[in-house]
Design a protein that fits this description.
This protein has helices spanning 16-34, 41-48, 62-65, 81-102, 104-135, 139-153, 164-174, 181-194, 211-228, 237-267, and strands spanning 199-202, 205-210. It is mainly α and 271 residues long. Helix 1 (16-34) packs antiparallel against helix 4.
């Protein structure tokens, strides 16, 4: 895949926001892997990854911090490094051209809002899939389960019988969402709509495809994969779609705002 640069050349300079996002994600991963913050990898994810809002581990700031945390090594051979490498590769390939077109302030706002939209849609999907589990427990049972989860998260053990519904809730509370994928998918959508006729060629599909078609194909793949919800698939497909949905709404708002500003300038008496 080649990076499109309207100013000429395949490898142009990396603009400010994209460059700093690449550096920040790399530094966060370095802190996570080295443990210099005094946190193990699971502790780091629990603190800065995004937890389900009813989880005792949830904190509001995680809506922001989860975008800069990526998977770390948990078991040998799990390919954890692909998470950050693919995300940063996507940011490097598509982000500069979008930032060149919009400027740094709009690009940064778009990136962060796509990450937030991604999180909201994914949490909504989790709520939809888990509502039946919560419905089986009364308020007292849920409060007791919450207390036991807090005890477990502090190094204790969970006692008593655990039903399948309880186990599903415990998994929901314990597994944080991490990664910049939602924001990156928003950037991919912006690239596809701003530069629709640029041809992209992926290594695993060596046929040039126009960016506008590439984006649609990718969105369909994510939707099908998310609905299928195959066993062992730990990819947050609806988070990816959430980034695209948020990006589409923002792009339409930008377009409407820019059109209004252009019309206002044309009506000025000194123009």
């Amino acid at each position: 895949m080649m990076r499109y640069n309207p100013s000429g050349g395949v490898f142009g300079g990396i603009p400010t926001v994209v460059k700093n996002l690449l550096i920040l994600n790399g530094l966060v991963m370095l802190v996570k892997l080295t443990g210099i913050a005094g946190l193990s990898i699971p502790e780091f994810d629990d603190l800065f990854g995004l937890h389900y809002p009813s989880s005792p581990l949830f904190r509001p700031y995680q809506f922001l911090t989860h975008m800069f945390v990526h998977a770390g090594p948990m078991v040998p051979g799990d390919g954890w490094y692909l998470h950050i490498l693919l995300n940063m590769f996507g940011l490097y390939m598509f982000g500069p051209q979008v930032e060149y077109r919009w400027g740094s302030q709009r690009f940064l706002a778009y990136y962060l809002l796509c990450g937030l939209g991604s999180a909201l849609l994914y949490l909504g999907w989790l709520w939809y899939g888990s509502r039946e589990h919560f419905a089986t427990l009364g308020p007292d049972e849920l409060a007791l389960l919450r207390d036991q989860f807090i005890q477990w998260s502090q190094g204790g053990t969970i006692t008593g019988a655990i039903t399948p519904d309880m186990a599903a809730i415990l998994r929901l509370w314990s597994e944080p969402m991490v990664g910049a994928s939602g924001a990156i998918f928003g950037v991919l959508l912006a690239f596809g709509l701003l530069f629709p006729d640029v041809r992209l060629m992926m290594l695993f599909f060596p046929v040039p495809i126009k960016a506008k078609y590439f984006v649609v194909i990718y969105a369909v793949i994510e939707l099908v994969s998310g609905v299928a919800n195959r066993s062992g698939d730990n990819v947050a497909h609806f988070a990816h779609l959430g980034g695209m949905v948020a990006g589409f709404v923002l792009l339409k708002w930008f377009e409407r705002r820019d059109r209004g500003n252009a019309g206002h300038q044309q009506d000025l008496p000194w123009r």
